[in-house]
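Ticket closed. Logging final result for Cdc23 domain-containing protein.
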Amino acid sequence: MELPRHWMARFFEAALCVELQRNEEARGLYAALRRHFPGSSYILSQLATCCYNVRSFDASQQAFDEMRRRDPYKLASLDTYSNILYVKEQSAALSHLARQAVKIDKYTPEACCIIGNYYSLKGEHEKSVTYFQRALCLNRNFTPAWILMGHEFMEMKNTPAAIDAYRTAVNINQRDYRAWYGLGQTYELLSLHFYALFYYRRAMALRPEDARMWCAMAQCYESMERRAEALRCYERAHRCGDRE
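Final structure:
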């Protein structure tokens, strides 16, 4: 469909690219829009999200830091920022972010997810689940909270609860590969490799350039002694940038 030649159409197109995991295309569109809207914190947060989606955590963190300097009271997307601090194990920065989120507005799902990530990094998984549940009390359709809660239940070895959380996330947003991938990991943990493979395939369809999806599928094929398919998946993972 041909979109009208209007700047608002470019915003729509860029947001659609982010939703469909076409992150490089989205970055190009937002970079072009930023020339016309240099002070937009929304564009910065979307650029940071694109970098996060392609696992460029340093670039994403820099974009989020700049966004926070320009708009220190903005909470939207900061749950993604907290994921970066969690992955990089920056506990002091995550603690500071959690305190700031509480000061701004503790009754938001983003603030609750930030606090949940903080407790998860400390290894206090039950407290973490409590805050993700609070996030869902505020917004039952907040997909990141369901996914993060699924991760916590996995850490607690509560696979039925993890499956329920991931399934709910899938029902809310079938385009979020993290929920499909989480289901695959859960069923693989239960040694139900055929089911795990189904969910990994769904995740791979959404993220065909992500080597992790191909490696996960390869491991399932290996467990099922289907070595030819496993080898093809490993070869594809290598082409996607995996060096292991």
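The chain is about 75% helix and 0% strand. No further action required.
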